[in-house]
Design goal:
The chain contains 4 helices and 7 strands; from the N terminus they run βααβββαβαββ. The radius of gyration is 15 Å and the shape is globular. The chain has 160 residues and is α+β, with helices and mostly antiparallel strands. A hairpin with a 2-residue loop joins β2 and β3. It is 28% helix and 32% strand. The two termini are 27 Å apart. It has one domain: 3-Layer(aba) Sandwich (Aminopeptidase), CATH 3.40.630.30.
Length: 160
């Protein structure tokens, strides 16, 4: 979890479905967050993809994060999650992930899965806070460093 208290957090986030007009800001965040940023054509295809749901997170009308899932056969695969580097560790990633999980459930997903770098302790902590649990490691998953990816799963809470 983040070290900031609720009173210290920046202005509340607003979440909405990503639109084509958002792509310049999303692509800027993508370049900042990933060694393999997606092209404009890839992003345009994603927004048209019937199994994909992409959301953006705004603070004071400024896009500060984005995230997306693919829903296939009752499972949501988290594709990407990114928060502006200068605004990390302020709770925005947690809020974004919680919203993404909600969108997955609304789309009918019975489980949500993702891969995260073994060394990305901050992201893993956010995912664990949202209820994800580790299901193993994919060795040598990341092309840029060769490090493994922790496979994480979130299943709905069982009724008591």
């Amino acid at each position: 979890m983040d070290s900031m208290s609720d009173k210290e957090r920046i202005v509340p986030s607003v979440f909405r479905i990503c639109e084509e007009k958002d792509l310049p800001a999303v692509m800027e965040l993508d370049r900042e967050a990933f060694f393999d940023p997606w092209s404009l054509e890839t992003w345009q295809r994603e927004l048209q993809n019937p199994i994909a749901v992409w959301i953006v997170e705004e603070v004071e009308r400024d896009i500060v994060g984005y995230a997306g899932i693919w829903n296939v056969a009752g499972e949501a695969q988290v594709m990407r999650v990114a928060v502006r580097k200068a605004l990390r560790n302020q709770g925005l990633g947690l809020l974004l992930t919680q919203e993404l999980v909600q969108k997955a459930r609304e789309a009918g997903a019975e489980a949500v899965t993702l891969e995260v770098r073994e060394t990305n302790a901050a992201a893993r902590k956010v995912y664990e806070h949202c209820g994800f649990v580790s299901g193993g490691v994919r060795p040598h998953y990341y092309e840029d460093t060769g490090e493994g990816a922790v496979i994480m799963w979130l299943y709905p809470a069982k009724e008591k």
